[in-house]
Amino acid sequence: MTNVTPRYDLICDPLDRWIVWDHVTESPASFGGRILDGLDEQEASRLADVMNELQRRQQTLTDRVGKRSAR
Fold it and tell me: pLDDT (tens digit, 9 = 90+) per residue, 19-49?
């Protein structure tokens, strides 16, 4: 089993609001045109979980398509 760092994480800003951070782009994450910042911790945590799950599913699908193409 591999130990992979999630793409999306939480960062607390100086005003005690939370940001969903994208480690790939090294900037706040966005979804549906909305930057995911100024959130309470619970909301940010839920959104990061959803974003990481979407990323995981997309990667799984990409891996499957790549294996089919290699046949």
Answer: 999 999 999 999 999 999 999 999 999 999 9
pLDDT averaged over every residue in the chain: 91
Quote the pLDDT of residue 62: 86
Q: Across the strands, what pairs with 66?
A: none
| Collapsed DSSP state (helix, strand, coil) of residue 21 | strand
Map residue 71 onto helix, strand or coil.
Answer: coil
In the chain, what are the domain boundaries? 8-69
Q: Give the C-alpha separation, 71 to 60, whole Å.
A: 17
Helix, strand, or coil (residue 30): strand
Hunting for tokens 């599913």 — which residue is that?
Answer: 57
Residue 10's Cβ-count burial label (10 Å; 0-12, 13-18, 19+) is middle
Closest alpha carbon to 13 in 38, 49, 44 = 38
